[in-house]
Specification:
The complex is a heterodimer of chains A (about 140) and B (about 140). Chain A has helices spanning about 5-25, 35-65, 75-110, 115-135. By secondary structure, chain A is mostly helical. The radius of gyration of chain B is 18 Å and the shape is elongated. Chain B has one domain. Classes of the chains: A mainly alpha (about 140), B mainly alpha (about 140).
Chain lengths: ~140, ~140
């Protein structure tokens, strides 16, 4: 699982949403709607994570643009960029993105899937969510 | 509905999440409520996401404020950095926050609630989401 770049992380989440939808569809006609509900909640959480990665990209693009401003006031530029990184991007990561990832994982971990495919879905997604959390943990705490 | 300040908007969403959750819970064992639970659940999920996005809006504003507090004689350059943050915030509201509010509204509005409680929930929450959307369009001139 390559998670080094923002695009890779975004692609992974998109893939998970597609897979989650497909699994949701596959259990939609069962009499017991437990697994369908578990898939639905997970897909909705991942859709929120996707929005958050788009937001991360807005922060990153702005950060890069600030770095490109031509100036002879290097110290001041660093100060502005530093504030933006710490108050902005790092805060967003710690207070919004990571908590949502952890919440997604927690809900999924606690859901008792009853079909064989459901259990596979859960294991697969928990592994990926754990990898994403590990990547994002402290990522912008520079 | 006062929505002019961020704190007021945050409070509205908080209230909606709480009430939505209570309504969702009430449907778990309710009879003759069809798929109302699904509509309530996904609405609450959307509202939680909106709440996190309002938190993100706050992060942008706080960051802007901190940068504005930097003492400098290079006003022009400071303006450049500040306007980049401002642009990023507007872009975030336009492409992520507003879209989520619209998505939440459309999803709720289109759900076929069968219980009286469900229909009331739908009417009340759609009205509030619509007011929130209009306020954001107004504030950010979108």
């Amino acid at each position: 699982m390559k998670l080094e770049t923002l695009d890779q992380r975004f692609d992974l989440v998109k893939e998970m949403i597609d897979e989650g939808f497909a699994f949701q569809e596959s259990v939609a006609d069962l009499e017991d709607d437990n697994d369908w509900a578990g898939a639905m909640v997970t897909v909705e959480n991942l859709a929120a994570v996707e929005d958050m990665i788009c937001t991360e990209e807005i922060f990153m693009d702005t950060f890069n643009d600030m770095g490109h401003v031509r100036t002879s006031n290097r110290d001041e530029q660093e100060e502005f960029i530093g504030i933006f990184m710490y108050e902005g991007l790092n805060s967003f990561n710690e207070e919004v993105l990571l908590p949502r990832l952890r919440h997604t994982l927690e809900v999924l971990e606690n859901w008792g899937f009853r079909t064989e495919d459901g259990v596979k879905f859960k294991d697969n997604f928990c592994e990926k969510l754990n990898a994403l959390i590990k990547k994002y943990d402290g990522l912008y705490d520079i | 509905m006062k929505l002019d300040t961020l704190a007021q908007r945050h409070k509205l969403i908080n209230d909606l999440v709480k009430k939505g959750f209570e309504f969702e819970e009430s449907l778990i064992h309710a009879e003759n409520s069809g798929d109302d639970w699904g509509g309530a659940m996904s609405t609450v999920e959307n509202l939680v996401t909106i709440e996190e996005m309002i938190r993100t809006e706050e992060i942008f504003l706080v960051t802007y404020g901190e940068m504005d507090n930097v003492r400098t004689r290079n006003f022009d350059e400071k303006e450049i950095y500040l306007s980049m943050v401002d642009d990023a915030l507007i872009y975030f509201v336009d492409t992520i926050l507003l879209r989520r509010i619209e998505f939440a509204f459309d999803h709720l509005n289109g759900w076929n609630f069968v219980s009286d409680g469900g229909k009331k929930f739908q009417k009340t929450f759609c009205k509030k989401l619509d007011a929130l959307r209009k306020k954001y369009q107004d504030i950010y001139d979108l």
